[in-house]
Amino acid sequence: MGAGFGSGMYRRTSIHRLLLYGLIIFLIGFLFYSQYLPCDTAPKTVMVSNDQHLLRDSENRAYPYNKNMPLIFIGGMPRSGTTLMRAMLDAHPEVRCGEETRVIPRLLGMKYQWGRSPKESTRLKEAGITDKVIDDALSAFILEVIAKHGDPAPRLCNKDPFTLKSMVYLSGLFPNSKYLFMIRDGRATVHSIISRKVTISGFNLKDYRSCLQKWNQAVDNMYKQCLQVGPSKCMMVFYEQLVLQPNKWAKDILQFLDIPWHDSVIHHEQYIGKPGGVSLSKTERSTDQVIKPVNLDALTKWVDFIPEDVRRDTRMIAPMLERLGYDVDHFPPVYGEAEKQVLDNTNSIKEKAEYWHKKEELKAYAKTIGFLEKAYANTIGFLEKAYANTIGFLEKAYAKTMGFLEKAYAKTMGILEKAYAS
């Protein structure tokens, strides 16, 4: 039994190692492909040098991109305002963020896992897969994903919340990149994660206490990395303040990013779904909220849902709350005063509740239609494949049968001719 268990473990380790090496080879191949081979798909890419590429839009305007450009990364805990932030930036005519890629944080997570295993690191180096090879491959892959998963723009931006868990590493790959670290009251974030059933590895969606502890760990990690890369590269953006005073914070954010002011950033809802505006994914959980103008509805929704024992032990469970300046003693907390525009938006949404409800229903309907279209396409694809396989099988069977019959016929004719001759 021991030998069988050991051999099973060895096989699993071998498979994991093969998968690891396969991914590395894929990334290196991707780097080679993106550097030396032409691309015929839109948006069109033109090779300029080993470090510089061009994207061309539908009007043939050229947009250079390379790893030294000032990329923007938006991150933080999910349900902390990352979608609102990227929608505001997407509304700016010079910026394109687009939907979450999902693949970038996963690759960064794998890179982190490789680094944690001294044995695996040694094996990689022995195979000639140095840190530089991996860094070059990853930076090329990440850059291509960011550049090509949406329309070209002078400033490119990525919003995958957990990318900021690798902020220091990314800062090394992209030396001129800047980071917007979205921070929200952890209790509000946890309530939103639980109520919207957002699946996050390690989070028990039935337990507020453990979720708040996990929030504390994740935010502490990103907070330390933000401090490490420094205030010239990382800006902490508090969701509550962005919602209360969008004009002030939007101006500060654009100044930090070296992007000229444009009124569109405080009217992002007017650019939803428009060309060059804000593109929303059917799968992102916040799309039903960012279709509305900035308002106060979500600020204190969570208050009545926090269990009494979690309220009592908040300081112990999540010390980062006080460190970030949040009031843990009052329910609801006082976050500050709202700008007149935000108060007007909030009142307007309440007055037109039926209109916004219908708009949300239409959004849900569109989401369902999108799901059904995908299911339909998958089903048709499956049936076409099954049909092709069946036809292939029948043709093969027919050819085999005909071959057998021809052989039998020839043999029979041979016997008859022989019998006739004798």
From TrEMBL:
Q: Its topology with respect to the membrane?
A: Single-pass type II membrane protein
Q: Which reaction does it catalyse?
A: L-tyrosyl-[protein] + 3'-phosphoadenylyl sulfate = O-sulfo-L-tyrosine-[protein] + adenosine 3',5'-bisphosphate + H(+)
The UniProt record lists the EC number as: 2.8.2.20
Compartment list: Golgi apparatus membrane
Task: Please provide an example of a Pfam family that matches this protein in its UniProt record.
Answer: Sulfotransfer_3
Mostly located where? Golgi
* GO CC terms in record: Golgi membrane
What start and end residues bound the annotated signal peptide? none
GO molecular function of the protein, one example?
protein-tyrosine sulfotransferase activity
**Keywords in alphabetical order:** Disulfide bond, Glycoprotein, Golgi apparatus, Membrane, Signal-anchor, Transferase, Transmembrane, Transmembrane helix
The UniProt function text for this chain reads: Catalyzes the O-sulfation of tyrosine residues within acidic motifs of polypeptides, using 3'-phosphoadenylyl sulfate (PAPS) as cosubstrate.
Q: What family is it from? A: Belongs to the protein sulfotransferase family.
* Protein name stated in the entry: Protein-tyrosine sulfotransferase
Q: Report the source organism.
A: Owenia fusiformis
Q: What is the lineage of its organism?
A: Eukaryota, Metazoa, Spiralia, Lophotrochozoa, Annelida
